[in-house]
Amino acid sequence: MPAKACIASLRGADVARVPNPEISYAARDDWHSHYDERLTEAIGHRLEFLPAHARPPRNHTFWIAGIHEPGDRDGHAVVAQGAFVLHDPANIYRGSLPLNLVTAGMIVQPTWRA
After folding, report:
1. 3: pLDDT confidence band, cut at 50, 70 and 90?
2. Range of the domain at 36
3. What CATH number did the domain enclosing 31 receive?
């Protein structure tokens, strides 16, 4: 649910319109492609993963940081700008993003149609 709330926050979309990514985890081996299809259909956007060397983005882009703490099986997601937390759906993190705990990074991009 946190990733869903982060996507809704970044796009200004109703969280009810954003598909739940957990459904895609079990749908097929390539959960990301499956989720992108659903996200594109729902809100016209897709997720683009950031490689480790590009986290945080240098251009001050808003991004989703996946945080994993020891003992936390599910992980956590926040909206960040650079190394600063802007929105945490669970209200755990504020201020500085703990970059040593960031295991994934994503930006939400519009789907371009010809």
Report:
1. confident
2. 2-110
3. 3.90.70
CB atoms within 10 A of CB 10: 19
Tell me the C-alpha to C-alpha distance, in Å, between residue 47 and each of 52, 72, 86, 111.
16, 23, 19, 10
Cα separation, 14 vs 83, in Å, equals 26
pTM (two decimals) = 0.89
Across the chain, mean pLDDT equals 90
- pLDDT category of residue 82 using cuts at 50, 70 and 90: very high
What's the total number of domains in the chain?
1
Helix (H) or strand (E) holding 22: helix 21-27
